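[agent] plan:
  1. take the single chain provided in the ticket
  2. run structure prediction with default settings
  3. attach structure tokens to the ticket
  4. add a short note for the reviewer (M.T.)
[agent] executing step 1
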Amino acid sequence: MKQSDVAWRGQDDPDRIDRALIEIGQSGLKAEGTSVTAGYATAWALDATDSWCTLTVDISAHGAGWMRSLALTRDQNNHWAALTQMQGDAGLPPAGLAEPGSIDGALDCDIGLCPVTNTMPIRRLRLLTGTVPETPLVMAWIEIPSLRVIRSDQVYASLTPGLVRYRGAGGDDQVELTVDSDGIVIGYPGLATRLATR
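[agent] step 2 finished; step 3 output follows
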């Protein structure tokens, strides 16, 4: 396992700092991290060691007078299940699967506002080592900070070494991600910039 300790500052919200400890192996990654903003904080743990596909993600969020948690799992038939807890009134949509059947078949979770989860499709599709055309994927997207899980259709493609194209399937939000040799995001235009580490 190769271990990386990384941090990003939000471009959309400069108050947001994301930190992650990522362990990368031959067939996937394990990671845990936090996100701190002026209004809420999250903490999460991710297991994507099944050929770079998500097995489990556990995430909690809390703000003034409220907290919630989500345990999301994918089985070998690519069926997703969620356990949630909610306390207090955050004025947010309920945590958990918004439309349970809509994400069946998805291989990845995508934690909103978090650059870490881009690494799984980048590595699984071998975008770092080959010329890969646009490839459509379905994601179990975790909205932050509500922890609502929504289907997200996304498209990935390789560009040049260290550069990956990502966009929503409808053509919106197209960006070019700069990544390091492990497929970990360095720059995500409009979202986050990696900070220097000691």
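[agent] step 4 note for reviewer: The CA atoms of residues 77 and 105 lie 8 Å apart.
[agent] ticket updated
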